Amino acid sequence: MALLAGCAVPPRPPAQTTRARPANPGLPGTILAVHPVPADSVQQVQTLLSGTGPSGDPVPQDLSEFIVRTGNGTIVAVVQPASADLRPGEQVRITTGGSPRISVPVIH
């Protein structure tokens, strides 16, 4: 009697499926304060935030620093172009994908 175990094909593992990741909805938070970034500091802020030094790209001249308390109580500062829609007390979302940004959530 011959053994054919060496010729047997091992069972294939089940195919792995890849799930699409949901879009990052952002971290909820509340704006505590808004401070304008002085015009003479804008280039320095860009250098600090980019970590690479002046790039020669145009820099918005009306930046604001937004102090935001996240849903878990952490307080963060986000520097981005000023917006009349973003005021203290406003409920916002902090999104990442490069530099953090805050925005007012769209309500459907």
Topology:
Blueprint: E1 27-36, H1 42-50, E2 63-70, E3 75-81, E4 91-95, E5 101-103
Antiparallel strand pairs: 1-2, 1-4, 2-3, 4-5
Summarize the structure.
The chain is mainly beta and 108 residues long.
What does this structure look like?
The chain has 108 residues and is mainly β. The chain has a single domain (25-50, 59-108), classed as OB fold (Dihydrolipoamide Acetyltransferase, E2P), CATH 2.40.50. 8% of the residues lie in helices and 31% in strands. The protein has one helix and five strands, in the order βαββββ. It has one helix spanning 42-50; strands at residues 27-36, 63-70, 75-81, 91-95, 101-103. It has a five-stranded antiparallel beta sheet, with no helix packed on it. The relative contact order is 0.24.
User: Can you tell me the CATH topology?
Assistant: OB fold (Dihydrolipoamide Acetyltransferase, E2P)
How far apart the termini lie comes to 73 Å
Structural class by secondary-structure content: mainly beta
CATH architecture: Beta Barrel
CATH class: Mainly Beta
Query: For the report, how would you describe the main beta sheet?
Result: 5 strands, antiparallel
Domain count: the total is 1
In spatial order, strands of the major sheet run 3-2-1-4-5
The number of distinct β-strands equals 5
State the shape.
Answer: elongated
Question: For the CA atoms, what is the radius of gyration?
Answer: 25 Å
Mean pLDDT: 75
- Strand-residue fraction? 25-35%
Helicity level, as a percent range? Answer: under 10%
What is the count of DSSP helices, taking H or I runs of 4+ residues?
A: 1
Low-confidence stretches: none
